[in-house]
Every structure is written in structure tokens, then in C-alpha cells.
Amino acid sequence: MLLRSLAPLCLLAAVAFAVPAQEKRVHHQADLSDHDHDDKHSFKYDHDAFLGKEEAKTFDQLTPEESKDRLAKIVDRIDTNKDGFVNHAELHYWIKHRQRSYINENVNKHWKDYDTNQDDKIAWEEYKNTTYGYYLGEEFDDVDDKATYKSMLTRDERRFKMADKDGDGIATREEFTAFLHPEEFDYMKDLVVQETIEDIDKNGDGKIDLNEYIGDIYTPEDGESEPEWVQTEKKHFTEMRDANKDGYMDSNEVAHWILPGEVDHADNEATHLIQETDTNKDEKISKKEILANWNMFVGSRATNYGEDLTKRHDEL
Predict the structure, then answer these.
(1) Of 21, 245, 251, 258, whose CA is between 20 and 30 Å from 271?
(2) 10-34: string of b/e by CB count within 10 Å (b at 16+)?
């Protein structure tokens, strides 16, 4: 009876790591902020980029003195080689790290659920038993669509092994992050492409044709005329997605589709912050230079008040 009561929980856990929804297939790099990057009116974009969106809100509640004190401590953390300066590589790494905070929060949320022996690692057996334990028991045949859950188990095991770089069957926190968010790791991107093809390729030929591509995003209803957006997607397939014009999307073409090469926003922001604050033009910034321009990096109650006044003046 207990096993039956656990079934919905296991189902939810399994579904949590199932195929991403169709609208989430394309893994665009997120912008660093929801605010416009317009330093003439506000530094909020820079604050979100430098601190992360949630941490930037915390600084907005501090006094200027508190904000500067905290910023000074952050600078010490960014200066990883301890030479007294922040160079482009260090600042770029920091901004990327802050933007990944939402991923880390997601991993932390699941970590305790799967690290059942509390050794700060997650073995494949721990993950498998926590996620699929009920379905692997004697009553597995009671599951309505057991083939689906068996394929999900196989898929998860393959992804886990790929994320497990040293092949010891145990995931460190970094490896478990790669398992949950493979699109964020270069060494996992071939697997992301493979999984996408498997999801859409209905005839099993290892490629995606036009009908499979459209079928993944649109199912017509009886008597319904084809929407204009579907015609647009067909045009995109033939003119853009199918680059070699052979009628299919192969793995390389799928990679260009779902993992598009884009502007590195963190790199651009690191360049921008250094250019704006590097007063002696040595292509690196000291703590003194950063603190002299502290309100470009972090906010405070005072900067928010000033921006509110400016906004009200502009509205008038």
C-alpha cells in the first residue's frame, strides 16, 4: 500500500527530468538583465549583470556606505590571482558565475533529495532509486505506459554517465549540475543534440524531416486550416534549418538550431565595465577605480531614490 501511495511522487520526480517542452528546445543565452542597457538614465542593467538579479535587489535596500563595503569584499573575491587588480578574464568569469546562480539554486533544491547517504555526492543508484524506485519494483507492470518510463530511465542513465566525467558512477555537485542542465556545459552539448533528435525523429532514421519538425510543434484539428505561423515554420525549415538542402536536419543542423552561436553578454559587459572605470587605461581595474565608480557596479537606497527622481522629472 505504501508503494502505491509513493507512485505519484516518483512520477513527478521522473517527469521533472523528462524531455523539455517544445518551446524550450532552443537554448538561447539569457540576457543579463530585464532592464535596458542605458547608462545615461540608469545603471540597473549593470547591477543585475554584476550581482545577479536577486542579489541586485538586496543591494538596493542598503545605504551607500553598506553597498560600498560589500562591493569592496566582492572585489577581493573576483581578484582570484591576488595581484590587486581585476582583469577582463576575472570579471568575465565572475559575471558568468553570477548569472548561473539560478542553476545552482535549482541544483541545491534537489541535492538533499538525491544525496540519500549524505556524503555530498550523488551516486547513480541513489538517483535511480529515488526517481524510479516504485517503477523498478515487482509492481512495475501496473504502470499504464511502462515503456515510456523504461525509456526515461535509459535516457537518464545515459545522461548521468555522460555528465560523470571520471566515470566512477558518482556525481559531484558540478557533474550533477551538468546532468540537470546539460545545455550549460560544452562537453554535454552533443548529448543535448542527440536527445532532441530522438524526441522528434519518429521514423528512427537519425534525422529530422519537415513533417517531423512541424509535428513536434503543431497537431492540426479536424477541419482546421493551417495557421500562418506554421507556414512560417515550414519556410524556416526549408530556407534556414536545412542548410545543405537535402530535405533533412542532421545533427550539425540541429546543433545550429537549438544551440545557436550568440553574443556573449557576459564578455561584453566585462569589457564595458572596464572601459568605463579604467581611468589609467591599463586594461584592468583596481579596487580604488571600482569604488570610485561604485554606483555603476551596485545600487543602494540613494541611487534608487535618485533614479526615481530622474524618472519622475522625465515623465513631467
Answers:
(1) 258
(2) bbebbeebeebeeeebebebeebbe
